[in-house]
Structures are given as structure tokens and as C-alpha cells.
Amino acid sequence: MKKNILVMSVIFISLLWISSAMAAGTIKIGGLFAVTGPASFLGEPEKKTLEMLVKDLNDKGGISGMKLEAVIYDTGGDATKAVQLATKLIKNDKVAVIVGPSTTGESMAVIPVVEKEQIPLISCAAGIKITDPVKKWVFKTPANDHIAAEKILNQMAKSKQKSIALLTVTDGFGSSGREQIKALAAKKGFKIVADEVYGPKDTDMTAQLTKIRGIRPDAIICWGTNPGPAVITKNVKQLGIKIPLYMSHGVASKKYIELAGAEAAQGVMLPAGKLAIYDVLPKADPQAKLLKDYDQAYRKHFGVEASTFGGYAYDAFLLVTNAIKTSGPSPEKIRNGLEQTHKLVSVSGVFNMSPQDHNGLDLSAFEMVKIVNGDWSMVK
After folding, report:
1. Which CATH architecture fits 2-144+289-362?
2. How far does CA 57 lie from the centroid of its chain?
3. pTM of the prediction?
4. Does domain 145-279+366-378 have CATH number 3.10.580.10?
5. How confident is the model over 272-283, as pLDDT tens digits?
6. What residues are paired with 98 via a beta bridge?
7. CA nearest 22: which of 82, 79, 65, 84?
8. Leucine-binding protein domain: from which residue to which, for each copy (predicted)?
């Protein structure tokens, strides 16, 4: 009896969401992005991308006559503020789904809120713990950091580099990447000979790098998001260190090259989404046209090239609209549609979700790139 009442309640709530969306003619999508603060290089292009795509879809008539409304708040990269704003989106704004937050720490903080309130969240952050273990209402668009780590280690293996010096930032993204590299390195026969960290606001890492230089590893792996990695790149150049330097996908935008300087960044390698190098992809690549179209549209609207980070919001938008079209506009139906996503081509890769995988990307999501003369070059 109780089970029947529960089932009927879920159906009733779903019908209310659908009838409300139909009556109002709008479906509200919440956005939580670090538009200001140290992670603004993530949040600003995410916000702009979501706004651009919502406007474009509405100009074309929406989804079956229903318009979308993006309700976006700036978290400033602060986890406490992200929780407060997530609650506001759900309680006050009555959104059907939330896109974001921009960072791993914020996303982890918001998860209990969306799980309790049963509103789907599509994080734009990379930390594997966001979706592993799987949470019913939580998804994410960046490829898991263990995939990025594996791409780096595979490249190191090709170059016969066996000993690694780690230099990771002490935040959620850095801690997760450090954990994944160490686990994979042990499995693949690499040796971690140095394990150094730095703070998100540190402005000089010569002490850590001097230690690493003395140990003489085969390669250095830095894991973090700007500005730290750019500082480290400069410090490596200043100290005359010739050891190969690998960065994480957390710096896969031209902003990193700009901050570090083309000369210091010369030869740095990292795993990057295909958006950075779409112009040299084979024409048969399933993402090539979409990536070109996104970049051109973003340039037209905002006067600058599209970034991988803005692409995370593009992925979320495509996932949401696909779920609405295939399943319906209520939170429950959007959640179900997201989980059933299959072969959806987007900016970060080809998404194949399942009840066991709420990220849906594999190694094909990244290409190894090298910085050559201030620009990206594919590593052969």
C-alpha cells in the first residue's frame, strides 16, 4: 500500500511539473558559475555559452513550443555560496535542472542539496568523486580526471619516461588528480620520486621546483588550474629546468599560454579536449563540425575564441535539451533522460551515460597537445 502511494506521488509530482512547464511555456535551467574570482576563467565562458545557446534555441521556437529560461548566479568559486545559491535556485526559482558549479569543491558541496531535493545537477567540474560513486541526481560533463591522467602516463610511456615528480594544488581538483595519478602510476609501473604541493594563491613555487631539480625525475606533472600552473611554468624557465613538463587538462585554454608566456610554455604537453585543435582534426571526426560551429558562434557573439571550459556548459545544455526531447521537462524525466543518453556528440566528446556511469566519456575525449610557438600542436 505504501509503495503504491509513493509511486502515485512521484507520478503526481511529475505531472505537476509538466503541466506547470506547459502552462508557463518555459522550462527553467539554473546555472551556478564562478563568473568572478580566481576561477572566473572557468565560469565566465560557461555563463556566456549557456546564455548564448538558450537565446539561440528560443529564437528558433524552443522545444515543442516551450521556451527555456536560464537563471544564473555567480558563486565566485565559493563552496558555501554555491550551496546557498543552489538552494535558492530550487526553492525560489523552481528550476528543473542545475548546470554547474564550475569547480570540484563547489560541486561536492552542492551534491547533498540536489540529492535531497531531487533536482538533476550537471557539474562542469572534473573531479572523479563528483560522479564516482554514482549519485542518482548528479552528472558531469568534463571527462574524469583519471582519463586525463592516463593520457599523460600513456604519453610518458611512449617517451620511455618512468620517474615522475608531482606538483599539485591543494584544492579539490588538485587532490583528486594527485590521487588518480598515484594510483595509475603504481598500476603502470611508474615511480613517483617527488610529491610536492602548492596553495591555490601561492605566487612562487621555486622552493618545490628546486627540490625536484635535485631529484632529477624523467618528467614533472603539474595538476591545477590557473594561475598556479602558469607561475610554475615561469619558475621552471627561470630555474633553467630542462625536465619535460606536463600539465593537466585544467589549463587547456589559451589563457594559460598568455599567463605563462609563449617562451616559457614552449614544449609543455597536456591532455586537451578537441576544441583546442579542431582545425587539425580529420574531417571524419564526429565532433569536428560541432566544434567549428561552436567556436564560430562564440567568436561572433563575444569576439574571442571558445574555450574548453565554456564547452562544459555547451555539453550540459545539449544533454538537458536532449533529455527534455526524449523524456520530458520535469526534474525526474530530465534525470531519466540524462541517464539514458547514448552516442550524443558534443564539445567534450561523445556521451554514453548509464545507471553505472554519470559522466559517459572515455579516453577518446582527450588529445595530447604540445605548445609550440604560443599555439597548440597535436602530439603525434
Report:
1. 3-Layer(aba) Sandwich (3.40)
2. 23
3. 0.82
4. no
5. 999 988 988 888
6. 30, 121
7. 65
8. 26-359
